[in-house]
Each structure stands twice: as C-alpha cells, then as structure tokens.
Design a protein that fits this description.
Ile-tRNA-ligase_type1, 4-stranded parallel sheet, Isoleucine--tRNA ligase, aminoacyl-tRNA deacylase activity, Isoleucyl-tRNA Synthetase, domain 2, Isoleucyl-tRNA Synthetase, Domain 1, 10-stranded mixed sheet, alpha/beta
Length: 941
C-alpha cells in the first residue's frame, strides 16, 4: 500500500540522527487519501454501483428478513429538485439504509405525483404564448402534452435523486399517471361510491378564479392582502323589540363583493348589544345625527371612533336572543335586491372585531352556508368560475369580484346603506400555484362525507390515537384538523388527472352504484389509462344494462390529494408489500396534505390508517433564520452544493441537524459541515493506515485487553445503543453529532494520541500493540457501517480501501456488539482518569507556552495522590496517558500534578527522554528489542 500517513512528527527521526531507524517504525500506510474530492469521486462510485447492480445485491441480502416499509410520499414531477426535496429524500434514504443494516428488509419504492394543476398550467402557458386557447385543444391531445411534460421531469428528478446517493427500486418506481395507478385511483373512488360516502352537493369551497377550479386546503397559502372594509346599514323592517323598528343593524365585512349574495345577518345570542342614537358626527362622516343603530356593546367605543360618530345617546341594550325574529331589508332594496334579510342566531359570532353582527352570504362562506342550510336560506349563484358576477346579478353583472369594491361601495352609498369604508391589510388565502387570491364559492362538487353512517371522522381520530408521531406534537396538529374539517371536496374542474369515473342518473340526480360498471372502468383504465374515459363512448362502461342517454358522464377530475392519498393501495397492497406501512415521512405541512389525505382515504375504505408511524421534519431557513426566497437571494440549490462540496456533505448536514425543527443552511454552515466531514474522514484514514497489514491472527480476546481498550469498546456499545434506538424510534436527532464527537474527542484527541506510541514503536507481536489493533479493527468496522447510511460514498471508499472493490459496505449489517463490552463501572473510572489527566496536560501546556519544552515527551510528570486514594493506573500507564517520558507517583494531600523537563537522553526511535537510552545505539530498551526483532514496517503483519 502507499501514501504514508504522517499525522505527527513523533515518529520521524531528526535528519542529523544516525543510524536511521525510520524503517523500523510502524507508520500508518493507506491508499485512502486525505482529501475527499467528493464532486469528482462520487459520480464514479455511482457508475460502479449501477454496473455491479448494488440494489439487486441489497435485495438479495434481504430475503427472509423482517420487512420495513417507508412509503415514499410522491414529490411533484415539475422542475429541478430544490433543497427541500434533498432534505426529505436524504432523511428517507438514511433511515432506509439504517434499517437495512440493522437487519431489516427495507424495500424502498420511490414515486411521483404527475397529475394536477401545476403541469396543466405549464402546458396551458405554452399554448397561450402561441396564441392558442387551451379550451380549443382536444382534451386527449392536451392530456398527452401534460403526460409528456411529466415524463420529462420525472426522468430528470430521478437522476438528481440518484446523484444524492438515494438507493431505491428506481426500475420499479411508481407514478400516479401510470395506467395501473390511474385504474387503482378510479377503483378507490369506486369504493367510496359503493359505501355511500361519496355524494354530489352544493357548498362553498376554496375557488381560484384564475385557475377556474376548486382548491384543497393543502393548495392554499396565506399572504398579506389589502381589502376594502365596509360598515353597512341594514334597516329593521319588522320583528324584534318594538323600539328598534326603523333603526339599522350595522354589519362589518372585509369582502364588499359578497354583498349581492347577502341573505341574512348573524348575531350572538349571549352578546350584549347597545341601541344608540347618533347625536353628533365628525366632519366627513357618513353617520347622520338622529339615526338609530345597533352594535355590540363591547365594540361600541371602537365602532364610534372608526365611523366618525362624535356623540351618541344610549337608548337601551339587548341580549342577542332578544333580536330573534327581527327582519331587515337588504341595503340595495329597490335595485334588484327586494328580499327580506332575517336576523339569525349563530354561536360563531364574537366581539373580537367589527360590530358583533355578521353579514351572511351562504354562497361565499362555510359558516354562512351551514347557517343558511339550517334555516332554509337561498344559496344564490352570484359568481361565475372566472370570478365575475353572473349575468343575472343586478347592478354588477360581468364585473370581477376583485374589482367590485368601489362599485359596490358607490351603490351602497347612493342607496344610503354605506356608513363607513376603510382599508385593511390582513392575511388572506392565495393559490400556491398562481399566487392569486382565492374566494369561497358555492358550486356543485363531489364530496366524501366525514360523518354519517361511515363515521370517517371518528375512525380517523381513533387511527390518529393509535399512530406513533415523531415529534409527538404532530398528533395534536393533525387531530385538530380532522376534528374540525368539513366534508372532503374531491372534485376539480380541470383536464389533467384521473376523472371521477362515475355516472349520474339524469332522472333522479343519483350516482349509479353498480360494481360491474366500476369494474369495467377499472379494466379499461388498466390497459388504456384514464384517457379511456374521454376516448370511449359511455356505453362501453355502462354495458347493455343501461341506456347511456339517461346518464350524465361526470367530467370532473379527482383532487390530486386523493390520488396521492391512494398510493398505499397501488404501491403497497397491489405489489404485495406489508400494509400498513411502518413509516410515512414528510415535511410538517403534510399534516394537512399527504398524511391527511392518506389517512382519510384509507380509513374511509379500510377502516384504519395506512401507516404505523408518522415522522415530520421542519422547513429550511437561512443562517439568520429567515425563510428562503428569491427576493432575498438566500436560497441554496442542492445541485450547487453537490458541485462544490459533494453529496456526502449535504447528507451530513441533513443528519447532523435537528430535523424536527426548521433547518438552517448557508455558506458558513456548509463550511462547518465540511470541517465535520474532514474530521470524520481523517478518523477513517488514520484507522485504515494503522490497520495496514492487519490479520485476524492479531486479535486478542476481550479479557486480555487493557482497560483503555475496553473503555473504547464500552463507548462503542453506547453508540451502538444510541444508533439502534434511533432505528427503533425513527428519531435520529443527535445520533451523528454524537458519532462525530466520539471521533473528534474520544478518538483523535485522546485514544489515538495515547496509543500512537504503542502502534508506531512497539514490536508488532507485542500484546499491547495487538490489543490496540484489535480495537482499531472494531472501530473501523463500526464506523464504516454506522456512517454508511449518511456518508454513502465515503463509507464505501473506506470499506473498499480495506476489503477490496468487489465488496460493498452497503450489503453489510451493523456489527453485533457483545454485551460484555458494556461496562458502566469502567466508564466511570475512565471519566475520572481523564479528569486527572487534564491536571497533567494543563501543566505540560504551561511549560510549552513558557518555552521549556517543545513536545510533551520532553517532560516528566509527578502525580500526587492522598495516601488512602487509589492511583488508578501504574506509573508506566500514566506516562502513556499523559504522553510523557516518565511519571512518578507520590503521596499528597490532594490529587496534584507537577511537570519538569525530562532527564536522560532522547531515544532516536520513539523520542522518549530516558536515562536508559544507550549512548551508542541511541535507543531505549523497548526500541532496542523492537529493532533486534528484525521486523520492519514492510514485514509487520
């Protein structure tokens, strides 16, 4: 072997020393280079793994072992990978590899989401640039273009994941656009159809006027938005306390555009309301002296100040329940809005802001809709799919709702209904794709019922209680979402996706629930994909039993979250893998996304969750804790990190971080990771160099090892327990920092330093040197395998440097640590020894700083111990511990250490300063024996 390791000058003889004993010193030798050069070396290793079919080797080693299934949540096939992808996939890969090496059969199938709006949006964009209207493109052509777009990016992302070192069944990956996947998704919709949970209903959903489709909660993000706020008079025309006749109920809203859809006013039954008469109005205020108004008592002062009411007289007060039966007029009465507006009780009304009265538009709010349905209110169809008022809406037909504030205010003011207007900047829902604001809009959609006979909500909450969450707070997060969520809207009005492949009886409006029809749908989808729904006539699916003219063929596609929530069915069940999965792992936002949809889908069709455990990681922030954004220019691309540092550095950053919280990254942090990597690599390099020529014949049994070596093995047993605990718990927080600390502090800065002299200068057959090499052998095997899930390239290099390129660390298992290695009493003793050692090294450092010595071997140390205190080690062992020439033990009142310049001559081979050094050979007794043995570094081992 080549490339001599010279970590310290101790082993090299001075140039003027004669004779030359350098060839008799057993210096480390290894072909494992100091510099990782990862960006250049890693691609070659990936090519070698592909050539040797490493994945197949790993699968072969796994046969008959206990399965472990981490089901891959599908990323979206749209663009290059970002750092969030890298974080997620590296964490998954490390956990899979660790389970594999802990003795499990970890079969990992990566997958992709391929349907949905982002891809459709990109394809539409291409047509728009070419001056074509997407609606004029034949649906099958458009879907083919979307499929081609997804295929392109799926292939690119697969190669980028492989470059990260992610090991998986890439040849058998899954995609939601695979024909078999589309068939399975249609079959899962069919399960809900058959069990009665799927229904079509009218209710408000989050709607994107830009994308002209309903959106799921997981497709919504919140940004600041400037809204016009208005205070509006609703004149009381009948009912309620007699004295409020002719007065006005005042509502406050941040959505003036919903006023045409108003059908009621909600009040809080337990809220106290003040009945006032305006006596004075500020200049410019719309309030009129003499008018009488009702507002919540708790909000009265703020209301008066905001609306410019400079003086008022309180005429009385009422409980909300006193207003039962009161009827008001729409403020635009006489202009097409000639209907009564009833006062209705609602528990959701508060006095946190506004007036204590809530304008109710059943078309445009969840609470509004539920209240309206309970009281038989009309649900008016006021706004079209593009966000403009429908042609039959008085005064505002054709106007876009986001441009309606001024016209609505003008109409209200002309009618005497507008009391005040202002502007509010607040958090508002936006589509995460188009970044445009969304609206609540009641439309006919397909829903999965959460309550009722199926009791999906109850079963989901029970499944959450039975699931392990890492970290634990994830349980409450998803639990609260499931407990409070409405029925699941699963329909979308788009083209690229799996259609809700069902038929509706035109005579009854009821969906056709025929298993034979659904079975034909699924079979056609398996061979032709979901395109069959658009290419084939309805009669092909309905068969001879039904008249196709009597049935509506539903053209909505299913929510992509339903698709990804069904992956457990066509990835795990359909492939004969264990179900439920052992682990789902994604970012913490997936409590409302993939975790949520997977839970509801599985519970609704199988009664239990598709996972046993759920692990969530945080999001990415820069070194100042700021969210990464293009505007700040603080983003970090994984491709750039790999090109500069290598994938192993990126992987080390992931596994060195606390993934439960937000993860910081930036240039300085990456430099720090480079330093951590350098220390780990140097540890492996020193082990390899010091094991040059090692054979099993050198191994000593445990009971013949010195205490220091047994202490190292104890530390290995502690780390092994930590590692295996992480495998069991899925919580890897602190594991790899602990391994790095062990390498840097326990090994490099202590054990290697102490035993370097024995390795270099003892004769190779000495028991002490054999004991050291026995432990180094175990250290190498443990560290190479322990680091393999993270430093996949470096660990392989360190393994193959020793055992040959025909082997792979990734087919190995973590070493089995004998129970006898664990020795807490020994650990306590050596903790105390190291504390005493620090007394001596402090004195030695003072001598070095004072110029009395250059190296610790030029000193002698005297250690003092009280008469009744065990010195713990012999004088010779203390000399090894302190790396000095000699140690004297004496009695003292307390444990003390004194250092002096060593007396005697310097041994030309080991550099100890000893009286015994021969004047002619310049060797101490130990080195004389070693040289006389005739063994050299070329023949050792």
């Amino acid at each position: 072997m080549s490339d001599t390791v010279t970590q310290t000058p101790d082993a090299a003889a001075p140039k003027d020393q004669a004779p030359d004993y350098r060839k008799t010193v057993f210096l480390p030798r290894t072909g494992f280079p100091m510099k990782g050069d990862l960006p250049k070396r890693e691609p070659g290793m990936l090519a070698a793994w592909a050539e040797t079919k490493l994945w197949d080797q790993v699968r072969g080693e796994s046969k008959g072992k206990t399965p472990f299934v981490l089901h891959d949540g599908p990323p979206y096939a749209n663009g290059h990978l970002h750092l969030g992808h890298a974080l997620n996939k590296v964490l998954k890969d490390a956990i899979n590899r660790a389970h594999q090496m802990a003795g499990f059969d970890a079969h990992y199938i990566p997958g992709w989401d391929c349907h949905g709006l982002p891809i459709e949006w990109k394809v539409e964009e291409g047509h728009r640039k070419a001056g074509r209207n997407k609606d004029e493109i034949p649906v099958l052509q458009f879907r083919a273009e979307c499929r081609a777009y997804a295929e392109k990016w799926l292939a690119i992302q697969a190669e980028e994941f492989k470059r990260l070192g992610v090991l998986g069944d890439w040849q058998n990956r899954y995609a939601t656009m695979d024909f078999t996947s589309e068939a399975a998704i249609a079959a899962e919709i069919g399960r809900f159809l058959m069990n009665g949970a799927l229904y079509r209903g009218l209710r408000p959903v989050m709607w994107s006027p830009v994308e002209k489709t309903a959106l799921a909660e997981a497709e919504i993000e919140y940004h600041d938005h400037k809204s016009v706020t208005i205070w509006v008079r609703f004149p009381v025309i009948s009912g309620g306390p007699a004295e409020i006749a002719g007065s006005s109920i005042i509502i406050w809203t941040t959505t003036p555009w919903t006023m045409p859809a108003n059908r009621a006013i909600a009040y809080g039954p337990e809220i106290d309301y003040s009945f006032i008469e305006v006596t004075e109005a500020a200049e410019g205020a719309r309030a009129k002296p003499g008018e009488r108004l009702l507002v919540a008592e708790a909000l009265l002062e703020a209301f008066a100040k905001e609306t410019g009411i400079a003086g008022y007289t309180k005429l009385g007060s009422f409980k909300g329940e006193d207003l039962a039966g009161a009827i008001t007029a729409h403020p635009l009465r006489g202009q097409g809005y000639d209907y009564d507006v009833p006062m209705l009780p609602a528990e959701y009304v508060t006095t946190e802001a506004g007036t204590g009265f809530v304008h109710t538009a059943p078309t445009h709010g969840e609470d509004d809709f539920i209240l309206g349905r309970a009281h038989g209110l009309e649900v008016p169809d006021t706004v079209g799919d593009d966000g403009t008022y429908n042609a039959w809406v008085p005064l505002f037909a054709g106007l876009h709702v986001f441009k309606a504030a001024d016209p609505v205010c003008a109409a209200l003011e002309a009618a005497g209904g507008l009391l005040h207007r202002n502007v509010l900047v607040h958090s508002y829902p936006h589509s995460w794709r188009s970044k445009a604001p969304v609206i609540y809009r009641a439309t006919p959609q397909w829903f999965i019922r959460m309550d009722g006979p199926e009791d999906i909500r109850g079963k989901a909450l029970a499944a959450i209680a039975a699931t392990k969450f890492i970290p634990e707070q994830g349980r409450n997060r998803i639990g609260s979402m499931v407990a409070g969520r409405p029925d699941w809207c699963v329909s979308r009005q788009r083209a690229w996706g799996v259609p809700i492949a069902i038929f509706v009886d035109r005579r009854t409006g009821e969906p056709l629930r025929d298993p034979a029809v659904m079975a034909r749908v699924v079979e056609f989808f398996k061979t032709e994909g979901a395109d069959a729904w658009y290419a084939r006539p309805a009669s092909d699916f309905l068969g001879n039993e039904y008249d196709a003219t009597q049935y509506e063929q539903v053209r909505d596609i299913v929510d992509v979250w339903f698709e990804s929530g069904s992956t457990h069915a066509f990835v795990l069940e359909a492939r004969g893998m264990p179900w439920p999965a052992d682990l789902y792992l994604e970012g913490s936002d997936q409590h409302r996304g993939w975790f949520h949809s997977s839970l509801l889908e599985a519970v609704g069709t199988r009664g239990v969750a598709p996972f046993k455990a759920v692990l969530t990681h945080g999001f990415l922030v820069d070194e100042q804790g700021r969210k990464m954004s293009k505007s700040l220019g603080n983003g970090v691309e994984p491709q750039d990190v790999i090109e500069k540092y290598g994938a192993d550095i990126l992987r080390l950053w992931v596994m060195s971080s606390d993934a439960r919280d937000d993860l910081s990254i930036g240039p300085e942090i990456l430099k720090q990771q480079g330093e951590l990597y350098r220390r780990l690599r140097n540890t492996l390099r020193w082990l390899l160099g010091s094991l040059d020529g090692f054979t099993d014949s050198e191994i000593l049994p445990y009971d013949e090892l010195p205490e220091l070596e047994r202490w190292v093995l104890h530390r290995l047993s502690e780390l092994d327990s930590l590692l295996r605990g992480a495998v069991e718990s899925h919580d890897w927080t602190g594991v790899y920092p602990a391994i790095h600390h062990f390498c840097a502090t326990d090994l490099s800065a202590y054990y290697f330093d102490v035993r370097k002299d024995a390795l270099y200068c003892d004769r190779p057959d000495s028991l002490r040197r054999r004991a050291v090499r026995t432990v180094l052998d175990q250290l190498h095997r443990c560290l190479a395998t322990w680091l393999a899930p993270v430093l996949v390239f470096t660990a392989e290099e360190a393994w193959q440097t020793r055992f040959g390129t025909e082997t792979s660390v990734h087919t190995r298992q973590f070493p089995t640590i004998p129970a006898e290695w664990r020795n807490e009493a020994l650990a306590e003793k050596w903790t105390r020894l190291r504390d005493i050692r620090r007394l001596g090294t402090t004195k030695l450092e003072a001598m070095r700083q004072g110029g009395q010595i250059g190296a610790s071997l030029q000193a002698d140390v005297t250690l003092g111990f009280p008469a009744d205190t065990d010195t713990l080690l012999s004088a010779a062992d203390w000399a090894d511990m302190l790396i000095v020439s000699t140690v004297s033990l004496t009695t003292a009142d307390s444990i003390t250490a004194e250092a002096t310049v060593a007396s005697g001559e310097k041994c030309a081979r080991c550099w100890r300063v000893l009286p015994e050094v021969d004047g002619t050979t310049k060797l101490c007794l130990r080195c004389t024996d070693a040289v006389a043995s005739g063994l050299t570094c070329q023949t050792a081992g």
